[in-house]
Every structure is written in structure tokens, then in C-alpha cells.
């Protein structure tokens, strides 16, 4: 697989992106195109010459791009005006068939705008959705949408469920993943106008719909795929990140208050490391923008090099599983079923 990485995107770029690309190149055979200022990327790569033989990394290549879209720029305006930005060049590489996926930790609005501008939507897809893994008691579930669409119609939620279900099945290997709709009660009669209408449509879709799930059910693995509008999804994501960080800090404070417990920290360390890993967004790396005609991975702005590496590998995995064509077929099948 060939993965185009926006080397200039993110709060810590190009340091984090270049290091993440080197990690991914050492761990896999995927070819990584580092897109951005050739001078800055080359300087950053030289900083790692002592820890690894860069000449032996045949699967890293620099693609020059003279412009950068900053985190605070207007997404659509920036993509239209800066056609030689590292982000736009990444999207064009996928659109032209020169890369199998692109990854960016930059301005998330601009990433979505670039994907829509250059890759376009898959035929039949009403709204692309950001779908990502969220920690649960038994592992992870997929939540869709995570922020791309804050105002949705019922048919949008149905498509989110179809696309995220396919993503979950292909990437995790779960056959017929359970799909739940976020609402304020388990009963079909609970919810607002959006969720009540979406509930009835989801029942008709060719997915394993298990009904409504409440906020507390998400972490308890009541569903493998959780469907909601982007406003709710983003609140869940940010609340979950904050809660995980709070719990880890509370554990540390509690241990410090009890000398015997603190003394036993070396024996608890592996368990605490496992806990931290299970709630660390850097492990997921990035979230796919499902519904565009190509693989696009949207990363967290404050991503570490570890997150960049994992985002690159996530993009490669999605491309290997031919996720785009799978979504195309699933949406066409649903449209035929409802006579659209």
C-alpha cells in the first residue's frame, strides 16, 4: 500500500509526523509519501539518522508541497485557495491513483473539505461520516458520526450505520456487528424527532440493528457500532477522553495518599500501563472519513508520533480491505431496497 501523509499537519508537525512515518516504515512494508516542505522534512529526518539507517528505509519518499493549511484557517476557503498545500497534494495523490490512502493530523475541517473536493462522495452517500474506535469494557466499539455532521436527518444516520458496520466488520473481523442508536432510553418510543425516525429506518436496513443504546451502554459493550449525529458523537468523544484522563490522575493521587499502595506501584505498573493503553486515543491513530471515494484518515491535532504511525497503519488496513468499494456496494444495495 502507498500512504500519503500530510507531513505539515498537526500541532507538532513536522517533528511528530516525520517520526511517526519512520516508525511506520520500520514496522511495515507500506510505502509512505511524506508530503510537505522538502527542506523541513529532510532536516527533520536527519535528526533520526543516529537511531536508524535512513538509507535502508526504501519505503519513505518526500513529495514537495510549498503551502500549508494552518489549524485556524477557514477549511473550504483554504482548500480552494491553497492547491499546493501539503493536505491538498495528499488528497490529489489518492484521487489520481498515486496513493491508496491519505492521512492528516491537520485542520480537520480542511481534511474533510479536501476529501470532498478531490475524492468526491461515493455515489448514493448523502453525508460522509467520521467513524472511530471508542474504548469499552470488552475492547472497543465504533462510533459514527464523530463530528463531521452536527445537523443530521434520519436517512443520514441510517447510512452512518451501514458504513460503520461494514468498517467494523472488515477491520475487526466481527461478523454482523451489533448496531445501536444513541438515545435517552432503550424503548423505541424514547428519543427526539431525529432518533425516533432513524430507529424505524435502521430496522429496515440490512444490518444487525439492536435498537437504542443509552450513554452508559456504550462503555458496557452493548453494541459494536454506535450511531449518532456528529454533535452527540463529538461530545461523547471529548467527554470520554477527559474522563479517561481524570480516572488515571485519580488513581495516581489515591496511590500517593497510601504509602503501602504507592510502594506496591512496581507490581501494579503493568496493569496501569494496560489501562492507559486501552483509553489512549494515540492507539487508534486516526478515524476514517467514511463515504468519500477513497481512504481518508483524520487524525487528532495534538497527535504524537505514535498516533501518526498508527494512523498510517489504519489507512493501509482500510485500503487493504477495499473499504471504499465495500461501502459503494452496501449503499447501492440499500438504495435498491428502498427504491431510491
CATH domain fold name of the largest domain? Isopropylmalate Dehydrogenase
Rg measurement, Å? 21 Å
* Topology, number of strands: 11
What is the CATH superfamily label of the largest domain? Isopropylmalate Dehydrogenase
Percentage of residues in DSSP E strands: 15-25%
Helix segment tally: 13
Strand order of the largest sheet: 3-2-1-4-11-10-5-6-9-7-8
Q: Low-confidence runs (pLDDT<50, min 5 residues)?
A: none
Q: Mean pLDDT, nearest integer?
A: 91
Provide the domain count: 2
Q: What is the architecture of the largest domain at the second tier of CATH?
A: 3-Layer(aba) Sandwich
Q: What structural category characterises the helix and strand content? A: alpha/beta
Quaternary organisation of the protein chains: single chain
* Helical proportion, percent range: 40-55%
Molecular shape = globular
Order of helices and strands: EHEHEHHEHEEHEHEHEHHHEEHH
CATH class of the largest domain reads Alpha Beta
Question: What labels would you give this structure?
Answer:
2 domains, Isopropylmalate Dehydrogenase, alpha/beta, single chain, 340 residues
Can you walk me through this structure?
It is a single chain. The protein is α/β, with parallel strands linked by helices and 340 residues long. The chain has 2 domains: 1-125 and 291-321, Isopropylmalate Dehydrogenase, CATH 3.40.718; 127-283, Isopropylmalate Dehydrogenase (3-Layer(aba) Sandwich), CATH 3.40.718.10. 49% of the residues lie in helices and 17% in strands. The chain has 13 helices and 11 strands. It has helices spanning 15-27, 38-46, 75-81, 86-95, 108-119, 154-172, 193-204, 215-218, 230-257, 259-263, 265-278, 305-320, 323-338, and strands at residues 2-6, 31-36, 60-64, 101-104, 129-136, 139-144, 178-182, 208-213, 225-227, 286-290, 295-299. The protein has an 11-stranded mixed sheet with strand order 3-2-1-4-11-10-5-6-9-7-8, with helices on both faces. Helix 7 (193-204) links the parallel strand 7 (178-182) and strand 8. The chain is globular.
Amino acid at each position: 500500500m502507498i500512504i500519503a501523509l500530510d507531513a505539515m499537519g498537526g500541532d507538532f508537525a513536522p517533528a511528530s509526523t516525520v517520526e511517526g512515518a519512520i516508525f511506520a516504515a520500520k514496522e511495515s512494508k507500506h510505502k509512505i509519501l511524506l508530503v510537505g516542505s522538502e527542506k523541513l522534512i529532510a532536516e527533520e529526518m536527519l535528526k533520526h539518522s543516529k537511531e536508524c539507517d535512513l538509507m535502508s528505509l526504501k519505503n519513505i519518499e518526500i513529495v514537495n508541497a510549498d503551502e500549508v493549511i494552518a489549524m485556524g484557517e477557514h477549511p473550504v476557503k483554504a482548500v480552494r485557495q491553497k492547491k499546493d498545500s501539503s493536505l491538498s497534494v495528499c488528497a490529489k495523490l489518492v484521487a489520481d491513483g498515486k496513493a491508496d490512502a491519505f492521512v492528516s493530523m491537520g485542520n480537520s475541517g480542511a481534511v474533510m473539505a479536501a476529501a470532498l473536493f478531490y475524492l468526491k462522495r461515493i455515489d448514493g452517500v448523502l453525508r460522509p461520516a467520521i467513524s472511530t474506535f471508542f474504548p469499552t469494557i470488552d475492547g472497543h466499539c465504533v462510533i459514527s458520526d464523530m463530528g463531521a455532521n452536527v445537523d443530521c436527518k434520519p436517512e443520514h444516520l441510517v447510512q452512518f450505520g451501514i458504513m460503520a458496520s461494514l468498517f467494523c466488520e472488515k477491520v475487526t473481523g466481527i461478523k454482523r456487528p451489533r448496531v445501536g442508536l444513541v438515545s435517552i432510553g432503550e424503548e423505541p418510543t424514547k428519543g427526539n424527532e431525529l432518533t425516533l425516525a432513524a430507529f424505524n429506518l435502521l430496522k429496515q436496513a440490512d444490518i444487525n440493528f439492536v435498537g437504542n443504546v443509552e450513554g452508559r451502554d456504550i462503555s458496557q459493550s452493548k453494541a459494536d457500532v454506535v450511531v449518532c449525529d456528529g454533535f452527540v458523537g463529538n461530545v461523547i468523544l471529548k467527554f470520554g477522553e477527559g474522563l479517561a484522563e481524570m480516572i488515571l490522575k485519580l488513581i495516581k493521587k489515591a496511590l500517593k495518599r497510601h504509602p503501602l499502595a504507592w510502594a506496591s506501584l512496581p507490581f501494579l505498573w503493568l496493569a496501569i500501563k494496560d489501562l492507559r493503553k486501552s483509553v489512549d486515543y494515540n492507539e487508534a491513530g486516526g478515524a476514517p472519513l467514511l463515504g468519500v471515494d477513497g481512504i481518508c484518515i483524520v487524525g487528532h491535532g495534538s497527535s504524537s508520533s505514535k498516533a501518526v504511525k498508527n494512523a498510517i497503519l489504519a489507512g493501509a488496513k482500510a485500503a487493504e480491505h477495499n473499504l471504499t468499494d465495500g461501502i459503494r456496494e452496501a449503499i447501492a444495495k440499500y438504495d435498491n431496497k428502498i427504491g431510491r
